[in-house]
Amino acid sequence: MLAAGHGERLGLGPKALIRVGDRPLLLHVLDSMATNASVNTVVVTAPDDMVADFQELADSINPAVLIRVTPGGATRQDSGHAGVAALPPEVDCVAVTDVARPFTPPGTIDRLLEDLRTAARDARPGLGPCGIVPALPLVDSVHLRGEGPLLKKPFDRSLLRAAQTPQLFHRRCLAAAYEAAAKDGAACTDDAGMISRFGGAVATSPGDAANFKITYEYDLALAEAFHAHAAKALVERGAGT
Question: GO molecular function, one example (predicted)?
Answer without folding.
Answer: nucleotidyltransferase activity
